[in-house]
Amino acid sequence: MSETVAPDPTPEQAALIARVRRMMLIAGLTTAVGVGALLVAIGYRLFRTDGSVQVTDVTATLPKGARIVSTATAGDRLAVTVDIGGATEIRTYDAKTLKAVGRLKFAVEP
Asked: Which residues cross the membrane (predicted)?
């Protein structure tokens, strides 16, 4: 078999080939940086531990005859509206620890 020999490129062709190689190198490096950033983001989301959920069992006692009217969340607080014998009370708890934070009682003026 005979080998075909390619003629030497002209200076314009050589400049064009060098330019294409440089653009391909830039594109390859940009792709590698993007894939690396994606892998770092996925690894961070998989291995971080600060967002782990702790299971907490808490029993809150209410006075006899009391009933829960509504519940709501606000930021890191849990608000429970309780009706105690016709009087309304709002009890506030920390959403992460479920410990009582505050109590707001409503009274009717005489």
From this structure: 25-47
